[in-house]
Amino acid sequence: MKKTLDEIAKLASGEAVGNPKIAIKNVANIDEASSDDLTFAMDEKAVEKFESSNASAAVVPKNLKKFPKKPHIKVPDVRIAMIKILSLFDAKKTIQPGVHKSAVTGKNLKIGSGSSVMAFSVIGENVEIGSRAKIYPGSYIGDGCVLGNDVTIHPNAVLYERTVIGNRCVVHSGAVLGVDGFGFAPVNGKYEKIPQIGNVVLEDDVEIFANTCISRATMGSTIIKRGSKIDNLTHIAHNCRVGEDCAITALVAVAGSTELGNHVSIGGTSGINDHIKVGDNTVIMGRSGVTKNIPPNSVISGFPAQDHKKEMELQASLRRLPRLIEKVAEIEKNTSKK
Prior knowledge:
The chain is 17% helix and 30% strand. A 12-stranded mixed β-sheet has the order 8-11-14-17-20-25-28-31-34-37-39-40. A 10-stranded parallel β-sheet has the order 9-12-15-18-21-26-29-32-35-38, with no helix packed on it. It has a 9-stranded parallel β-sheet with strand order 10-13-16-19-24-27-30-33-36, with no helix packed on it.
């Protein structure tokens, strides 16, 4: 499929400069682009690389001080333009609707029009699946689960019983939703399991990446609210509430009954203690350990996590500490000689 530079510019709400009729066959990174390819240049350095690359054209910010001589598209935001342009060139395989003959389905399955249940999937009883859903091979959907429209469940994902998934959600391979919460009580020197009778609820437009685990609530629901994205190998414990449009990167652990506000961003390998409340629009930097409630609009880092500026001051002081110790030792040595 080929598109002219002008057609792509209109799709991305941009302005084609140079040769608007030039034909673009594909998109590629600057270093890998060949002729007929479109690439993306986020800043002046990337524009310089584009000029010497094989790419036919590039998408660039419209606020550059110096624009490339080669054909390009000016846009307000390159990353937003990338969403539309990459979607245009995303050649996804057409999936036929229907239930594959090797799939195992329980009683009272309700499935909307245009949905696909692929080979070797297992679906329990009393399950509801909306329209245009894609259930990939090897996935498991337990009894009483409810899936909305345009949901995608990738291979080998697992939905425990009564999991609820909103419209346009994506669950990637190996993710497990609804596993028992880690609830035990010590009884006579042994751990007795507390029954976990709740469920997991994903609201609309949530995306859960590979090998992430979200535990069901002890009672009630563990809730991931609209638009939130949770990266690979993350654990969300029982009775947590993740707000709208949160971005949680890989290897994060959130302990039980924690509440994240809306628009919270969490860097990789961070940990959050149980029963913590994190306010709206907070940024938790990577490798942070959150041990207390965090007010809205905070930027925190370190362990225990504190205001990011204070943490940077502390780290700078620690780096100066060896030299200060040397100076103190030298002063003590000189003093003892006297």
